[in-house]
Predict the 3D structure of the following.
Amino acid sequence: MTPDLFDTHAHLHFPEFAGDLAGVLARARAAGVRRMLTIGTDVETSRAAVALAGREPDVWAAVGIHPHDAASADAASLAELERLAGADRVVAIGETGLDFFRDLSPRDAQARAFRAQLALARRAGKPVVVHCRDAHAETLAILAEASVGDTGGIMHCFSGDLAVARRCLDLGLLISLAGPVTYPKARALPDVARAVPADRLVVETDCPFLPPQPHRGQRNEPAWLALTAARVAALRGEPLEALAARTTANARALLRI
Ligand SMILES: [Zn+2]
Ligand SMILES: [Zn+2]
């Protein structure tokens, strides 16, 4: 029996997949990935995400401006994002958040773009997809100030420790585990995988980035979500099928799919 998986964070419309997207989607479906959320990172890729979701029955879109691109989040970009947010099959706003690891946009611009997208999510009545790297205190403070629990959201590619996970849960977020939970140096992620309540956990690839352990160094793709889900299921001591069904139900409830 193949598991029923939902890849809650993919960038299928990125150029890395332009040459063989049909094959990538076919392998995903064969591996049990029945639903995928493709995520925009600026206005242009958000448009591409919406277009792809319009073509594929098992792909939905999130529209947003990534912290790396936050310097581009001017009034015109945010207005266009708001227009896209109303499109068919757009089920979330993001990815948005803070990234103080790479600091590709100034930190004040990142915070401004993050707050603007949280407000947009509230107006649109859609949940947020949050990106956070080396900025947990600041990200959690902004999420709390915005009462993110009203729209709900996903802390994607969770990279914090148990204390950060508990704060995310208190704020009303789901926690999404990605390929790094399979790495030998997974730090606190195995503890997080065991501790998150069953109704608050989802899984993702973040493809083309962050492939799970046996594929490190290669382009990631949704078919490999089963490897990450199997690792999480083993850590929790449950069958893969049960973990897959539960995380899929959680994603569908939040995204209203
Ligand atoms: Zn991200
Ligand atoms: Zn991403």
Remarks:
- The chain has a mean pLDDT of 97.
